[in-house]
Amino acid sequence: MSATDATARAEATLDTPFSSKRRRQRPDGKADRAKKVLTSKWATAGAIIIAVIWTIPTAGLFITSFRPADQIKGSGWWTIFQNWGFTFDNYAEVLTAQGASSANLSSYFINSIVVAVPATLFPLVLASLAAYAFAWIKFRFSAAIFIGVFALQIVPLQMALIPLLQIFSGALGISGTFPAVWIAHTIFGLPLAIFLLHNFISEIPGDVIEAARVDGANHFQTFFRIVLPLAMPALASFAIFQFLWVWNDLLVALVFSGGGVDVAPLTQRLAELSGNYGRNLHRLPAAAFISIIVPLIVFFSLQRYFVRGLMAGSTKG
C-alpha cells in the first residue's frame, strides 16, 4: 500500500460519524467557553438590565423636557404620575428668539453642524494618508515618527490650548472663526486617527499591495483604488467617533470660538442657557434633548461601524 493510500484511509477513518461525535464532545477552548458564558441567558439578562439602567437618564431627560417650569423646579421627573403635566412651552422657548437673550437655539444648532462636519472630514483625510505612508512607504525615521505620533495621545489637550490660541490670535489672526475651531479639532484628533487607521491599513495583505505595484500603480493610485475601499469600515467608524466627540465638545469651543454668536456651537449655548442663579433652569432639559438628537441618530444608525472602530487594529494576525 502506498503512502498516499494510507493517508487517505487514515483521513477516512478520522471522518467517521463516531470520530466526529467524539470531536464534538471534546472540551472546548477558552474562547468557546467565554462565548458560551457571554451568550448564556444570565448574561443576556444582565446585559438587558445594564441597558435599562443606562437608558434611565435619557428617559428622565425626555420626560423632564415636557414638564412645566414649576414642576421641574419643585419635583423630580419620577413623580410624573403624581404631578402630571405636559407642555411644549420649554421647546418653544429654546427654539425661538424670545427664549434666548442673544440668539435662538436653532442658530447654534447650525453652528454645531458647521463645526462638526469639517472637523470630522479634515482629520479623516489627513490621517488616512499618513496611516498609509507609515504602513506601506519606507522612509527614514518612519518608526520614530510613528512612535511620536502615538505618544501624543497621552498629552492632555489643555497643554496646547494657550500656545495654539496665541498662534491663532497673533500670526494667523483667525481666532474666533470657524477655521480656528476646525484646525484645533483636527490637531487634537489626528494622533488617535493615525494610530487606528495605521493598524487597520497595515493588516491589508501585502500581496495585494505588491500586485498593484507590479501592475504599475503608484502610491497615489494604490491608495485611492485599493487601500481606500478596503479601509472604508475603519474610516467610517472613526468618522462616527470623531463626529460624536466634536459635537459634544465644550472646552475647545469655549477657547477658540471667541464667545461669538456666529461661531459658538450648541454646547456653548447650553452652558449659558439657565441664566443667572438658574432662573431659567427649566429650559435646559428641552435644549439638552435637542442637542443629543443628532448623536443618537448617528450612533444608532451606524453603531456597528462604531464598535468596529473601537476594535480596529486592537489585535494583530
Give a quick rundown of the structure.
By secondary structure, this protein is mainly α. Helix content is 71%, strand content 0%.
Which CATH architecture of the largest domain? Orthogonal Bundle
Coarse morphology: globular
Which sequence of SSEs, written as H and E, runs from N to C? HHHHHHHHHHHHHHHHHH
Radius of gyration from CA coordinates: 27 Å
Number of strands: 0
Unreliable segments of 5+ consecutive residues? 1-27, 313-317
Q: State the share of residues found in helices, binned by percent.
A: over 70%
Number of domains: 3
CATH class of the largest domain: Mainly Alpha
- Determine the strand fraction and express it as a percent band: under 5%
Average pLDDT? 78
- Helices, by number, come to 18
Main beta sheet: none
Task: Provide the CATH superfamily of the largest domain.
Answer: MetI-like
Distance from first to last alpha carbon: 41 Å
Structural class: mainly alpha
According to CATH, the fold-level topology of the largest domain is MetI-like fold
